[in-house]
């Protein structure tokens, strides 16, 4: 791209901006009125032809103007786009929507996804990254009726899950206390993926005389670990895709039906904001669409990954600053939610 000089860059920027605004191929006269340079229409046409040969523009019809290619959009986003800063009012509104005292990490991320969809009028797909770093911080057993017990598991990411266990006989307070101490001694601080069937067998043997009575609870610990570790892809604001005139409804329906296939794409969002265009990835084959990817992070670890999905003609200069502001705000909230603030070193959200 070294041959794309300042004038050609200005022309490309004008074509992308105008096409995003109008949805119509952009001709030389429209470009000339945008760039404010003292050059002829012929010069503009020659430069547009160069940009077409470079793969940054294309001409839908022989007599029509040009439109950006996916490569042109990417060059625009990386090098030419002038981000539109958020107003003080927009920042206050986002801050108010995101602020929830004593929220867990899961709740913070879930709320942020909703806010992002509402602020951008686009769909947002997200996956939790709990398996990569989350550890067990506490396990509790709560009597919930005759021979019925609720097993509660809390992780370092703020996830709180419970499972109802039905046991053939009532447990004594001593048995419950023993089990809680046993599990917390053996599993607290371990990654969720360390709770394997082999580890479960070792723990069952170590229960000794309590093995028969406490095995149902031990199995529930394993099942909860699996449930928390199992990645699920969540989508919010899908109506924004279904009602978009710029997207094919049949392809959107297929995307919604197979949203879990986006997991691999989302797992690639490690640092900063990146953009994937429809049909560039087989799991995201929606014509004329784009996905803006970014992670939520805390303590240097990825807590979740998300993608904002919309038409390829989305106003990137407006949407990306919103995504960045929300992401930075959520990262700070996640850091605060995971900070230890008591003598036991447990985060305040637990």
UniProtKB/TrEMBL annotation:
Source superkingdom: Bacteria
GO annotation terms (biological process): negative regulation of DNA-templated transcription
Domain Heat-inducible transcription repressor HrcA C-terminal, residue spans: 106-320
Transmembrane stretches, start-end: none
InterPro entries in the cross-refs: GAF-like_dom_sf (IPR029016), HrcA (IPR002571), HrcA_C (IPR021153), WH-like_DNA-bd_sf (IPR036388), WH_DNA-bd_sf (IPR036390), WHTH_transcript_rep_HrcA_IDD (IPR023120)
GO MF term (any one): DNA binding
Stored Pfam families: HrcA
Sorted UniProt keywords: Repressor, Stress response, Transcription, Transcription regulation
Entry-linked HAMAP family: HrcA
Function: Negative regulator of class I heat shock genes (grpE-dnaK-dnaJ and groELS operons). Prevents heat-shock induction of these operons.
Family: Belongs to the HrcA family.
UniProt name for this protein: Heat-inducible transcription repressor HrcA
């Amino acid at each position: 791209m070294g041959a794309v000089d300042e004038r050609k860059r200005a022309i490309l920027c004008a074509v992308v901006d105008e096409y995003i605004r109008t949805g119509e191929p952009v001709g030389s006269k429209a470009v000339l009125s945008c760039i404010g340079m003292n050059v002829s229409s012929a010069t503009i046409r020659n430069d547009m032809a160069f940009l077409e040969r470079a793969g940054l523009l294309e001409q839908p019809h022989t007599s029509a103007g040009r439109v950006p290619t996916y490569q042109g959009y990417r060059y625009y986003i990386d090098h030419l786009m002038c981000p539109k800063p958020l107003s003080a009012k927009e920042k206050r509104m986002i801050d108010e929507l995101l602020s929830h005292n004593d929220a867990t990490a899961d709740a913070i991320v879930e709320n942020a996804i909703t806010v992002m969809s509402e602020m951008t009028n686009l769909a947002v797909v997200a996956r939790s990254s709990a398996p990569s770093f989350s550890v067990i911080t506490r396990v509790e057993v709560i009597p919930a009726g005759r021979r019925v017990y609720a097993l509660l598991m809390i992780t370092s990411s703020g996830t709180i899950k419970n499972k109802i266990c039905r046991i053939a006989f009532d447990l004594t307070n001593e048995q419950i206390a023993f089990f809680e101490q046993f599990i917390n001694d053996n599993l607290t601080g371990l990654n969720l993926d360390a709770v394997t069937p082999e580890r479960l067998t070792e723990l069952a043997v170590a229960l000794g005389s309590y093995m028969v009575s406490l095995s149902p609870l031990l199995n529930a610990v394993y099942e909860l670990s699996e449930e928390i570790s199992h990645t699920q892809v969540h989508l919010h604001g899908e109506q924004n895709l279904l009602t978009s005139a710029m997207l094919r409804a049949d392809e959107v329906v297929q995307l919604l039906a197979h949203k879990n296939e986006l997991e691999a794409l989302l797992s690639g969002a490690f640092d900063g904001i990146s953009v994937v265009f429809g049909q560039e990835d087989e799991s995201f084959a929606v014509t004329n669409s784009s996905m803006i990817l970014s992670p939520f992070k805390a303590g240097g670890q990825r807590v979740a990954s998300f993608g904002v999905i919309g038409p390829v003609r989305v106003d990137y200069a407006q949407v990306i600053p919103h995504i960045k502001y929300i992401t930075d705000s959520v990262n700070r909230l996640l850091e605060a939610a995971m900070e230890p603030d008591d003598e036991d070193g447990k985060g305040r959200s637990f």
